[in-house]
Write a structure and sequence with these properties.
Layout lengths: L10 H7 L11 E5 L10 H9 L5 E4 H4 L7 H10 L2 E7 L7 H10 L17 E7 L22 H9 L3 E2 L3 E3 L7 H17 L27 H5 L16
Parallel strand pairs: 1-2, 1-3, 3-4, 4-5, 4-6
Helix pairs in contact: 1-7, 2-7
Length: 246
């Protein structure tokens, strides 16, 4: 989770202290930005622009690329294969991700490719969540109206990474997307750009354990078709817009 502003390094500090060493090749990043309504975005639009400004970073504005929700799975798997760092940038929708980002995970991270028998395409890669919330940080406390710390809503992300043999990096979270002042937003975007430009030379990654081995899932647990992939529960909420952030 993002550290308080007083303890963060500036972008300049990241470039000075964490620049790639001579002779060490830079590792590729694939940034997937998912915001359904760009005209309503205050935070994620800035993050998209920042990612696009960094040379060598592959950036996908998911809702512009696939407005009909018809994902080119083969193309996406090629982009993922080329990257060492997969970055999910999106607002939090009902304590989770926007629908097209979820569909991307459902279709691209397929059995036998991302997980399961012989599914090792993502092994030893890193997954980084860059999220924004409508509620302030005080709302993500046991005494706040969300009743939990933000970390309580991360197990699905963490387990997705683990199942695919990836490391789940500490998330970069912007709270209170519509209430925060411009200086706080500027600092958040600057830190995001600095980290993206200097990956993997982040101080906190030095002590992080390597990615876990991809789980050996029994063949009997293999999804047989769309019904299995989607599950059997059909009581999903009719409208998930109330939990939007910017």
């Amino acid at each position: 989770m993002t550290a308080p502003a007083s303890s963060r390094l500036s972008t300049a500090s990241w470039h000075a202290d964490a620049a790639p060493r001579d002779g060490v090749p830079e590792r590729a990043a694939y940034v997937i930005v998912a915001h359904p309504r760009w005209r309503d975005s205050r935070v994620n639009r800035r993050l998209l622009e920042a990612a696009r400004s960094i040379a060598g970073v592959d950036v996908n504005d998911l809702y512009s690329t696939y407005p009909d929700f018809s994902i080119d799975v083969a193309a996406e798997q090629r982009r993922v294969t080329r990257a060492d760092l997969i970055v999910l940038v999106h607002p939090i929708y009902w304590y989770s991700m926007p629908p097209l980002q979820k569909l991307w995970l459902d279709e691209v991270l397929s059995w036998g490719w991302a997980y399961g028998h012989d599914g090792h395409a993502l092994a030893n890669k890193d997954l980084w969540l860059v999220a924004s919330t409508g509620g302030p940080v005080s709302s993500y406390r046991p005494e706040g109206y969300n009743q939990h710390d933000f970390s309580a809503f991360l197990p699905a992300y963490e387990q997705t990474a683990r199942l695919c043999g990836m490391r789940f990096l500490p998330p970069h979270v912007f709270y209170g997307a519509r209430r925060s002042d411009d200086a706080t937003l500027d600092a958040h975007v600057s830190e995001f750009a600095g980290r993206l430009a200097t990956y993997p030379q982040w101080p906190e990654l030095i002590s992080m354990a390597d990615a876990p081995e991809c789980s050996d899932i029994p063949e009997t647990d293999r999804p047989r078709g769309a019904a299995d992939i989607a599950g059997t529960v059909d009581d999903t909420p009719a409208n998930a817009s109330a939990g939007r952030a910017a």
